[in-house]
Amino acid sequence: MLTRLLSGDMPRSGLLTVLLLGILVSLAFAPFLFPGTKSLETAAKICIFIVLVASYDLLLGYAGIVSFAHTMFFGIGAYGTALALSTTGPTYSSMIWGTAAGAIVAGIFALAIGLFSLRVKAIFFAMVTLAVASAFAVLMSQLSWLTGGEDGLNYGVPREFKPAFKLIDEKILDVRINGKLLLYYFVFFASAALFLIMLRIVNSPFGRTLKAVRDNAFRAEAIGYKVVWYRTTATVLSAVMAALAGSLLAIWLRYTGPATTLSMEIMIDILLMVVIGGMGTLYGAVVGATIFILAQTYLQNLMGLAETATSSIPIVSTLVAPERWLLWLGVLFILSVYFFPSGIVGRLREGRA
Amino acid sequence: MADHLLSLSGLHTHIGPYHILQGVDLAVPEGGVTVLLGRNGAGKTTTLRTIMGHWTASQGEIHFANHNITKLDTPSISRRGIAFVPEDMAIFTDLTVAENMSLAAANGPIDAKRLAWVTDLFPPIGSFWNSSAGTLSGGQKQMLSVARAIIEPRRLILIDEPTKGLAPAIIKAMTDALRELKETDTTILLVEQNFAMASSLGDTVAVMDDGRIVFAGAMSELTGNPTLQEKLMGLSLEVHQ
Questions:
Q1: Residue A80 has pLDDT above 90, yes or no
Q2: Is B37 helix (H, G, I), strand (E, B) or coil?
Q3: Shortest Cα distance, chain A CAs vs residue B147, angstroms
Q4: Where do the ABC transporter domain residues begin and end (chain B) (predicted)?
């Protein structure tokens, strides 16, 4: 049953299993284990980024395609849902058609980019995606009558997803069962479902062929597989998944703007999460996204504590001052790439072999 | 030409600024083994790669089973029944042996009887079935490479130097396997430097030099004639045996 759910792709490492179970349990019971707005925001962000990073790994790790347009697809999904909710009102039907429209547009965009540029060398494809993504980001901020420009869009969500909505009056484990909580579980289960779908894809014959194409494109062709078709399909699937993750973000935040979806910074974050977690394995996305977002969110607090603790030692306390958190985040990345060149998941699986 | 499974006529191939094939005429009869000999750089590998569509011929035509396949792309050529075993043992190292094999069976699941026959030819394929192909030894990789090409019945198999860099014991296993394959009415076009193996397997032979075929005929014509060997290849092949 479990093997079927995971499409036969077991973690294959004791430590990794524990780590993944820990993440799963923490996310599933986040509202009860870590009460508070900030931790719930972080948990939802982790869920959404697991999907986003996994969809990027589908492209980078499995198909060996370097793309810089992933945030564009993420953005298309988010803006699709955002525009639907803001123009036709906060109903479920606008949520659904906005999400569907975003996913379809992202798929068509990916198909066009793929067919035009996947025949050329990898580096040109990367450049084309970079150019298209930058143009799209500028376009979104220029079309301010439609997208709100740099300010983005604020909109409502269906009543059941609003914090003011109460499912039951009593608290459970001291937590109010309100719309925000329902929305969190909506995000959680949707992310889990999308992740399992992707796991199914990469462990199917299609996923195997993708790996073969990445290993040796000419060999794959000589066996009779159309490489361009496989690469384009991977690009489209990955784009649609990214768009769905974008829609989840749009519904969760009730705000969509360039900074939350389209920025180059997010693109680089995604890259780092894939590399830190481990390329070519979707579990890497889970581990990478969780560690990265936790570090991004809580490193500052941790360093605040460290500064207080070391306040009597002059240089050290300056070094660990919270405003230097970016420096330490950088150090963490360098160390992780140095010690885990094949990513955390890759390292754990090797350790077992 | 109709009695030939594969025929190349006046084939020219350019790779970048280099004019590699300069009018290759080659006919591969149906059934049996045709060996393509020639010194390094004569254009043997380029000929195979042009047949496979990896390079596009700039002039000339390739006919396979009475169809012109000159302009087809590689996957279409493969699906017409030509398998290719390249010289660099290009197996998919990140996949398991099993995955490599099931990918090669492009027309559906692997036929169990066929698989039993292949693992009988190459026992390591069976014993390392679930191992990652990257962990195999050189000889085992070469066996996998050939096994992959024959897991589905093909009309023609192009094999590029299957014994290069392999130990004598493995060369013998490979020769035996190819001989058995020959019994199944599969046509083989073999590029080979090892003359002992080439002459024991080959029915017909073609010798290349400078992008052209300089000799074509029955293998017995070449093996029985040291003078011809010397003339064609600049040195007696006897010393290589």
A1: yes
A2: strand
A3: 12
A4: 6-235
Question: Across the interface, do B74 and A211 touch by the CB < 8 Å criterion?
Answer: no
From chain B, pick out residues whose CB is under 8 angstroms from the CB of A214: 94
What residues of chain A, 252 to 291, have a C-beta less than 8 Å from chain B? 280
- Between CA A204 and CA A202 the distance in angstroms is 6
SS3 A85: helix
Instruction: Among B78, B94, B103, B159, pick the best mutation site for testing chain A contact (most A Cβ within 10 A).
Output: B103
pLDDT digits (tens, 9 = 90+) for B183-210: 888 899 999 888 888 888 899 999 988 8
Contacts of residue A211 in chain B, CB cutoff 8 Å?
A: 92, 94-95
By three-state DSSP, how is residue B26 classified?
strand
CB contact under 8 A, B148 and A215: no
Work out the minimum CA distance from A160 to partner chain B, whole angstroms: 47
Q: Does domain B1-81+155-163+187-241 have CATH number 3.40.50.2300?
A: no
Other Cβ atoms less than 10 A from the Cβ of B211: the count is 21
pTM above 0.90, yes or no: no
- Which secondary structure element, helix H or strand E, spans residue A160, and what is its range? none
For residues A61 and A281, the answer to whether their CB atoms sit within 8 Å is yes
d(CA B52, CA A32): 62
CA distances from A107 to A18, A34, A141, A256, B110 (A): 36, 37, 22, 20, 33
- Answer yes or no: are the C-beta atoms of A48 and A191 closer than 8 Å: yes
Nearest to A223 among B54, B94, B104 (CB): B104
Question: How many Å apart are CA B159 and CA B34, to the nearest integer?
Answer: 10
DSSP category for residue B96: B
Structure tokens at A13: 């490492």
Residues composing chain B: 241
**ipTM score of complex:** 0.76
- Closest-CA distance, B175 to chain A, in angstroms, reads 23
A2-352 is classed CATH 1.10.3470: yes
φ, ψ (nearest 5 deg) of residue A64 = 70, 30
Residue with tokens 């009887």: B113
A205, B25, B131, B215 from B128: Cα distances, Å: 20, 41, 5, 42
Q: Is the pLDDT of residue B80 over 70?
A: yes
> Residue A88 and residue A98: Cα distance in Å, rounded?
10
Pinpoint the alpha helices (H) of A58-178. Answer: 70-88, 92-117, 122-142, 144-147
Instruction: Identify which has the larger pLDDT, B232 or B100.
Output: B100
DSSP strand pairing (B4-15 vs B18-29): antiparallel
Sorted by where each begins, the domain ranges of chain A are 2-352
Output the CA angle B169-B91-A342, nearest 5 degrees. Answer: 120
Residue A285 predicted with pLDDT over 90: yes
The three-class DSSP label of residue A176 is strand
Whether the CB of B80 is below 8 Å from some CB of chain A: the reply is: no
Q: How far is CA B111 from the centre of its chain?
A: 23
